[in-house]
Amino acid sequence: MQRKNNPELQAVVAQLCPDSRPASVTYEPVSGLTGESWRFDTGRLQGLAREASQAKSLLGASRRQEYRILRRLRHCHLAPSAWALTPGWLLVEWIKGRAFSTDEWQNTLADGGLARCLSGLHKMPLLGYPLALPQRLLRWWHYVDPSRRTPAWLKLHKRFTRSTLPRPLLVAPLHMDIHAGNLIIGSYPAQPMHFIDWEYAGDGDIALELAALFRGNDVSRPQQMQFIDDYCQASGLHYTAPQLLRQIARWLPWVDYLMLMWYEVRWQQTGEKAFTELADCLGARMGLRR
């Protein structure tokens, strides 16, 4: 581990753990797609400091909202505990365990493990933060490189921002960023799986969550069918698998466009060519040509 020379973060950690000596606290960077967080260890307590920044706010990540959502979920054991919030940092529990490997991810898709945990989340009380997708798209449009905009893209953008969202089957708490890196194999037999990185969570249609899961992870059609069967069995909903699949299909264009816009904004923020390549791939799927 290494020292983190950030007086603000050090002050927050010192306030959280007044018995610890600041000089003994260690910090380790934990990087993700939207930036850097810091794992800290006071000797008595291990936590994660998640930075609040304008870049993250632009992407739709509000640390204040994330803090309140985690507080609402504090008894479900699917999410880390939220400890402290300041204007610059969110401090949460460091969940002991490890991320899923590629094989373990494929296994939990196939054996019903992820379906059961996700259906458990979807049975929780609402979080109080409805996902405002058209408003998010409108905000992101202003940060797209004007040189990349085309008349066809503007037409597509207007279609999404002026369209009515699919009528939900069931509004529930959604994580909205489920992938192998955000799943932790826990050390408690009663709760073998945990979700981390709740910055995009909110209330929305359960089929939107599943559409994002399938599209974002390139889940094959046979895997989708098995997952939906497991999910319906675990959730006890009166919807059939064909009904849920049809609703997922209604959400897939929205998921594609949200991903495309997210990649465009991230390219503006980072300059990394990989984001424009991903955006161009999605644009081609939606009929856009650069």
Automatic annotation (TrEMBL):
GO MF entry, a single one: ATP binding
Catalytic reaction annotation: thiamine + ATP = thiamine phosphate + ADP + H(+)
GO biological process assignments: thiamine diphosphate biosynthetic process; thiamine metabolic process
Swiss-Prot/TrEMBL keywords: ATP-binding, Kinase, Nucleotide-binding, Transferase
Pathway field: Cofactor biosynthesis; thiamine diphosphate biosynthesis; thiamine phosphate from thiamine: step 1/1
EC class of the enzyme, as a word: transferase
Superkingdom per UniProt: Bacteria
Residue intervals of the Aminoglycoside phosphotransferase domain: 62-241
Enzyme Commission number(s) of this protein: 2.7.1.89
InterPro entries per UniProt: Aminoglycoside_PTrfase (IPR002575), Kinase-like_dom_sf (IPR011009), Thiamine_kinase (IPR014093)
Record function comment: Catalyzes the phosphorylation of thiamine to thiamine phosphate.
Family statement drawn from the similarity comment of this UniProt entry: Belongs to the thiamine kinase family.
Protein's name in the database: Thiamine kinase
Naturally occurring in which organism (per UniProt): Biostraticola tofi
